[in-house]
Design brief:
6 helices, about 180 residues, single chain, 8 strands, Aminopeptidase, eight-stranded mixed sheet, globular, alpha+beta
C-alpha cells in the first residue's frame, strides 16, 4: 500500500517480502554506524522479530526511488510519556526514524526529499503540530539533512541512546507547523 509519492520517491507500507532487504541493509557496517550499532547486525530472525511481530503503533515503510527499494522509514504518534519527557504538553506530535540502506543513493539529496515529504505528509494528512527526531549528536550528516528540511535543534538529550556499548548524547530536533 502506497503511503505517498513525491516525484521519483515512493513510500509504501512494509511487506513480508522486504525482510531480506532489511537483513541486507541492517547487516551493513556503514548503515549500522548510526543505526542499531555495528555490534548488533541483523539476521532474518531478528528482522522478523523486530519489524514484523511488534505490537506498537509504528507505521513501517519501505522507501523506493525510481522504482528501486533503497531504504526504510517509520512514523508514529508520540505517546504522552514520551511527549512529556521531551517537554511537550497537549500537542499532536509525530516522530520518525529512517535510513537509506543503499549507500550508492547517499549524498544525492534523496534523504532530504524523504524527510521533507514525510514532514509534509504528517502535517497535512495526520494533522501533526510537530514532527520530532532524536539523532545522535555525533551524526553530523543526519543533523545537516534534518536542518535542511526545516527541523531545529531544541535541546540536547544527554546519554540518550545506547549504541555500540556506550551511551550517546542525542539532539531533540523539531519541525513546528
Amino acid at each position: 500500500m502506497i503511503i505517498y509519492e513525491s516525484g521519483l520517491l515512493k513510500v509504501r507500507k512494509l511487506e513480508k517480502k522486504d525482510n531480506i532487504r532489511l537483513v541486507k541493509w541492517l547487516s551493513e557496517p556503514s548503515v549500522l554506524k548510526f543505526d542499531e550499532g555495528r555490534d548488533k547486525p541483523f539476521d532474518l530472525d531478528k528482522v522478523n522479530k523486530v519489524f514484523y511481530s511488534s505490537e506498537d503503533d509504528e507505521v513501517r515503510c519501505i522507501v523506493e526511488y525510481d522504482n528501486k527499494a533503497i531504504g526504510y522509514i517509520q512514523f508514529y504518534k508520540l505517546d504522552s510519556k514520551t511527549s512529556m519527557f521531551y517537554g511537550y504538553k497537549t500537542e499532536l506530535i509525530y516522530g520518525t526514524d529512517q535510513f537509506i540502506g543503499e549507500s550508492n543513493y547517499w549524498n544525492k539529496g534523496i534523504g532530504t526529499l524523504l524527510v521533507t515529504s514525510m514532514i509534509n505528509f504528517l502535517v497535512e494528512n495526520k494533522k501533526a503540530d510537530y514532527v520530532v527526531m532524536d539523532p545522535q549528536a555525533r551524526n553530523v550528516r543526519a543533523i545537516s539533512c534534518y536542518e535542511k528540511c526545516g527541523l531545529k535543534k531544541v535541546k540536547i538529550l544527554p546519554k540518550h541512546e545506547l549504541h555500540e556499548g556506550e551511551y550517546h548524547d542525542c539532539w531533540l530536533m523539531e519541525y513546528r507547523k
